[in-house]
Write a structure and sequence with these properties.
Structural class: alpha/beta
Radius of gyration: 21 Å
CATH topology of the largest domain: Rossmann fold
Shape: globular
CATH superfamily of the largest domain: P-loop containing nucleotide triphosphate hydrolases
Oligomer: single chain
Bound molecules: adenosine-5'-triphosphate, iron/sulfur cluster, magnesium ion
CATH architecture of the largest domain: 3-Layer(aba) Sandwich
Strand content: 15-25%
Helix content: 25-40%
Length: about 350
Amino acid sequence: MSFLSIRGLDVHYATRGATLRVLRGIDLDIERGQSLGLVGESGCGKSTLAAAILRLLPGNGRIASGEIRLDGTDIASVDAETMRLKRWKEIAYVPQSAATSLSPVTTLFTQFVEAWNVHAKPDRQRLRERAEQLFRDVELSPRWLDAYPHQFSGGMRQRAIIALALLFEPSLLVADEPTTGLDVIVQRQVLDVIKKVQRQHGTTLVFVSHDIGVIAELCSRLAVMYAGELVEFGATRAIIPEPWHPYTIALKRAFPDIRHPDHELHSIPGQPPSLADPPRACVFAARCPFARERCRAEKPMPRAMPDGRRVACHFAEQAEAMRASIMSGAAIYPMEAA
Ligand SMILES: Nc1ncnc2c1ncn2[C@@H]1O[C@H](COP(=O)(O)OP(=O)(O)OP(=O)(O)O)[C@@H](O)[C@H]1O
Ligand code: SF4
Ligand SMILES: [Mg+2]
């Protein structure tokens, strides 16, 4: 079994008007030491999946069904105390907008002490040495341990948060949009640091981003989400040059490639479906330029393709023609035809 193995994961949020079925039937596998990028438009459920792995869903959220096995243990069903011990030690989390999660009134070193206190009484001298080493690993001078968060720039703050997350040498690091909002140069520095520490510490990484170009830089595996479902999953180096799902193709055209920032961007016309009543057949059909009768009648289940990737599209075998059509701008989206 893979190091992290997710099977049939459904997550629901209860709201006043309806139950939102925010994740449906998620299946994912990551081997130890691999890096997985989770990508998709805003609202597709990336942060929900990240929080579910940590069992840190908001109060109105619940895992309705499925398994999340980490090194064989189903963390979707362990008790709260076991999960509390696993957090930090085995699974560390850099939440979306983590910068605001740092306390503004204590120095960074005090925040290391407080984090350590969650599990044991710290030996301050040893902890200081460890914190200094982690700061060096993320390319911050150890003297910054005695500074307050407001004295840090955005990129330094993200690196300090990553150092803090690595305190217990977690085997899995889940980082939710850690570079969003940073300018391109600082973003590159933070990505380089993540790449370096991931390799150095052998950490398995789940990295969330809405930007497929950022994931291409960092992750060996790629999972593309659309409206709560996984539509394409496989090796990044196979998917990025030749995406097979129409949504992945359109997403690639919608984002700048950080290696070719001058290429023209084209957003995907239309909106994702309501998560209160998601489509029973293909989840992308209302926006897909290639949708036909079968797509609106029958759900395309993720299928293994010859190169090992899984694609949830009835017509994935026609990917080459679909790519040519979308990338050249010839494809007509339903919203444009209406
Ligand atoms: N606590 C909540 N209660 C109800 N709905 C929620 C809650 N949290 C998130 N949602 C909804 O669930 C869906 C998925 O949200 P999520 O934050 O996981 O998306 P995301 O892919 O991380 O988006 P972004 O890129 O904007 O961060 C969205 O429609 C969102 O509005
Ligand atoms: S199944 Fe049909 S609607 Fe869905 S992505 Fe494939 S071609 Fe488009
Ligand atoms: Mg999010």
